[in-house]
Amino acid sequence: NAATRVKDLAWINAQAQPFNVSVTERSDFGMIAVQGPTARDRVLGLLDDNDSAVAGKLGKFAAVEVMAKDGTPLFIARTGYTGEDGFEVFVPPAQADRVWSAILAAGKGAGVVPAGLGARDTLRLEAAMRLYGNDIDETTTVVEADLGWIVGWKKEAFIGSDVLRRQKAEGTTKKLVGFKVLDRAIARHGHDVYVGGEKAGVVTSGTQTPFLKKAIGMAYLPAGSTDNGTEFEIDIRGRRVRAQVVPMPFYKRPNDSARRT
């Protein structure tokens, strides 16, 4: 993410060197994320007819260069960090205000409103999207973070493949799980987790979700305590509260076989 930009660029450049590949940071775009049940329709309506048809057929995680009706060049991706469908719209900074206003105007009758990072954080947590620096970092692996589905296991070799294949085959000592708080309390990042009275992990993300109307979060627990239904305790400012391991994601949008934990 943006907070780790310098470190990420240094790492990417280091990996690119043996392949004689050059990496160029693009600072000539701003990005506006339009997310929600009707988000794609709002954006498609701003494009010229031909590009609207092309963008409307984009699959998940795909992107395309398009032109707005007013001639503004856009790069749109069917991606996001909310668990909802939509587009991330990349626009030249000088035109960002105009595109922002056009999106709000197009969505006025559909309830489209600006949303800040706090609102986005509750959405990404409901969708169990990991946050770098909280749920994943340089001390965790994708297997421990229960993200094995993003790995191309059919490749013969890749960075970290030996360790990841061993963890996949033999298991890990800890695993990231989702939980709901059973008592009246809200767990937050950094709160200690206890299993059987012993400190066993830490909450990586936690909040009270306005949509699900309950306190949820993610935490690393010892491998033997990660089954759904397992209860444990969280220390919140000196008070132990009960929590229970539940499946992730906590919420899926209706088109993705809805499940609300």
Question: What would you note in describing this structure?
Answer:
The chain is of the alpha+beta class and 261 residues long. It folds into two domains: 2-114, Gyrase A, domain 2 (2-Layer Sandwich); 128-256, Aminomethyltransferase beta-barrel domains (Elongation Factor Tu (Ef-tu), domain 3). The chain has helices spanning 5-16, 39-44, 49-56, 93-106, 117-126, 161-170; strands spanning 30-35, 63-67, 73-77, 86-91, 174-181, 192-195, 198-209, 214-222, 231-236, 239-246. The strands form two sheets. Strands 5-8-7-6-9-10 form a six-stranded antiparallel β-barrel. The protein has a four-stranded antiparallel sheet with strand order 1-4-3-2. The two termini are 28 Å apart.
Layout of secondary structure:
Blueprint: H1 5-16, E1 30-35, H2 39-44, H3 49-56, E2 63-67, E3 73-77, E4 86-91, H4 93-106, H5 117-126, H6 161-170, E5 174-181, E6 192-195, E7 198-209, E8 214-222, E9 231-236, E10 239-246
Antiparallel strand pairs: 1-4, 2-3, 3-4, 5-8, 5-10, 6-7, 6-9, 7-8, 9-10
